[in-house]
Amino acid sequence: MTKSRTAFILADTISPAGHRLTTFEIKLPKVLLAELNTHRALSRNFSSSRAIPTAKFVEIESFAPKAWLKNQAGMVAKNEEVDDVAQTQHIWKTAIQASKDYSKYLSELGLHKQWSNRPNDWHTMAKGVLSGTEWNNFLWLRADGDAQPELQELAFDIKELLAESEPQLLAPGEWHLPYVKTMKDLFDNVRYFDSDMVELSEKDAITYSMACCAAVSYRTENIGLEKANDIYKKLFTGTKVHASPSEHIATPMQVLDSLNDKLEYMFTTDGVTHVDRYQNLWSGNLKGFIQFRQLIENNVKLG
After folding, report:
1. What is the dihedral of CA 201, 206, 212, 213, to 10 degrees?
2. 173 half-sphere exposure, CB direction, 13 A CA radius
3. What per-residue string of b and e applies to 21-47 under the rule 16 or more CB within 10 Å gives b?
4. How confident is residue 240, by pLDDT bands cut at 50, 70 and 90?
5. pLDDT tens column, 142-193
6. How far apart are CA 224 and CA 197, in angstroms?
7. How far is CA 267 from the centre of its chain?
8. Is pTM beyond 0.85 here?
9. CB within 10 Å: which end of the chain, N or C, has fewer?
10. In sequence order, which residues have a C-beta less than 8 Å from that of residue 187 and are 6 or more positions away?
11. What is the per-residue pLDDT across 69-88, written as a single tens digit (0 to 9) for each?
C-alpha cells in the first residue's frame, strides 16, 4: 500500500553556486501552524479561516491522532495507549461534529465566516505552500521522535522528498516558479506553461505562480491566467499590499568569489538585501536567490 504523503514538491531548483530552493505543497493540522511558523527561514502561505465560506469549511478534512496514547509528565507521549481507546475516539469524533454544528448555527444567524469558522480550527487540516533554501534547522527539530507526531510526519516526508528529488539547474534570470511547468526548447530558451499546458510569457508565468500560491486555500483546478491576473491585482494594487505569495518566486544570484565583488553586487543589484558572516548573499530569507518580493516597488512598506 502506498504511503499517503503530507507534502509534495512544486518546484526544486539549484543555482550555479550550489544553493538549492525547494517549494512544497503541504498539509498539516491547522493548530500546528504556530509551531511551523517559528521556522522563520521558511516562506509560507496557508488556507485562511476568513476566506472560506462556512458551508465549505465544515467539510474540510479533520485530523485525529494516529495512536491514542496515555498522558504523562513531559511533552512526549510514549507507546502505551489509553485504557478505553473506543470511548476516546468516540469523544474526539463527537467534539468535531459539535464544532461543525455550532459553526453552522452561527453562520445561519448571520455571523461572518471569520468568526463562525473558528470553532473548527482545532481539528481541521490546513493546506499550504512552503519554500526555503534552509531546511536543516526545521528537519533537525521536527524530523525527530520528540516532535509533535503530526509535524514529525510532515518533516520526515519533506526530508525524504529532498533526498529523492533532483533539483533543476537555473541560471540567473531564470525563475523558480511553483505551479508553473518550465522547459527549454531546441535553442535553450525557457518556455512556461500553466497546469493545462497553456503557454505563458515570463511575466504571466510569474503572475500565475504567485496567484496559485495565494489561492492554495481554495484552488481545486487550474485558475487560468484571467483569474490569476484578478488575484494579482487584489494582492498587489491598492493601498494595502499582501506580498507573502511573492516570496516563493526567485531567480539565482550571480556566482561571485571575492567579498568585494559580493558587496558591490549587493549595493548595485535590486533584491539583494544582505551578506552574512560567512559571505553568503541573501534576499530576504533566501540564500543565493533573489526573491521576487524584494523586487516589488516600495517593498519597505509591505512589512
Report:
1. 170
2. 2
3. bbbbbbbbbbebbebbeebeebbbbbb
4. confident
5. 999 999 999 999 999 999 999 999 999 999 999 999 999 998 888 788 899 9
6. 11
7. 30
8. yes
9. N
10. none
11. 999 888 888 889 999 999 99
